[in-house]
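User: Here's a structure from my thesis project, written as structure tokens. My advisor, Dr. K., wants to see whether a designed sequence matches the one we expressed. Can you design one independently, without my sequence as a hint?
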């Protein structure tokens, strides 16, 4: 892949494509597609902040939106509760369904309209698939709302896919547990997975190149979290290009990360002694 612009390697679509070349993400997406295609009520994705839950759900949404005939009867709804504000799950669902809810609309009236949409889709041979991200940022009624949404999915042959940070609270477990046919946990990456990801992101890119110890440093700084790996890698590469460097080493990664990393993060003091991670490709 030719990199004419410095930022192209870090465009969201490229990052998404690279992530799906990792066996762990490819398998997770396949499992989510299975529950959707078989119209199981609920699929749950768990993971700490930055481990790739949003990327995985975005991949699912795009796959369902661009689906061939085998999934053409599926209508995915993107519901991001981190941007829903105080409106909550029911309002966000209604809005994505095109119901144009008013801010003063009563929840029960919205749920009746949502149920009508589920039923109408079912009668026409379609399934509505809410893809709900950042459940942990929703309001206090979201858990009960999720349970109601899952029951509608079970009743009308649809699927709800939801992501949330652990721990899985007792209330959520009680609501989603009986209807949840799939539970995926996204852990932080190993050093080998970070190395593979970095190599794929920069595949075909113009210099600078990364020394093996630089990849180990990126893994140490990011803690194996996908979002932080992309953040450190992007800023390190941009800084190196600005200085005209052809090779990035661990010391340079540590310097850049120390300048831009959030204050709550402590960088390892012994990055230079970390075991080298091989950059494939």
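Assistant: Designed independently from the structure alone:
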């Amino acid at each position: 892949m030719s990199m004419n612009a410095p930022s192209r390697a870090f465009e969201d679509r490229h990052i998404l494509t690279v992530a799906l070349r990792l066996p762990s993400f490819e398998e997770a997406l396949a499992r989510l597609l299975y529950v959707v295609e078989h119209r199981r009520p609920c699929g749950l994705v768990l993971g700490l902040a930055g481990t790739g839950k949003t990327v995985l759900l975005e991949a699912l949404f795009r796959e369902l939106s661009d689906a061939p005939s085998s999934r053409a009867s599926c209508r995915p709804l993107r519901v991001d509760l981190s941007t829903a504000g105080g409106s909550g799950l029911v309002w966000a669902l209604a809005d994505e369904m095109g119901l144009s809810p008013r801010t003063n609309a009563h929840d029960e009236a919205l749920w009746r309209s949502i149920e009508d949409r589920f039923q109408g889709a079912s009668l026409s041979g379609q399934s509505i698939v809410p893809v709900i991200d950042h459940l942990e940022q929703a309001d206090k009624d979201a858990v009960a709302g999720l349970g109601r949404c899952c029951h509608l999915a079970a009743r009308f042959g649809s699927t709800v896919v939801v992501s949330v940070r652990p721990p899985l609270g007792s209330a959520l477990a009680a609501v989603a547990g009986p209807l949840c046919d799939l539970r995926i946990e996204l852990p932080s990456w190993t050093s080998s997975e970070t190395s593979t990801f970095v190599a794929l992101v920069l595949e075909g890119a113009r210099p600078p190149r990364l020394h093996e110890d630089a990849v180990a440093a990126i893994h140490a700084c990011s803690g194996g979290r996908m979002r932080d790996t992309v953040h450190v890698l992007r800023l390190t590469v941009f800084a190196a290009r600005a200085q005209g460097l052809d090779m990035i080493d661990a010391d340079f990664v540590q310097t850049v990360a120390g300048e831009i990393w959030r204050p709550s993060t402590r960088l390892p003091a012994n990055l230079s002694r970390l075991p080298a991670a091989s950059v494939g490709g």
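When you compare it with your expressed construct, this may help: Strands lie at 42-47, 74-80, 127-133, 160-164, 180-186, 209-210, 247-248.
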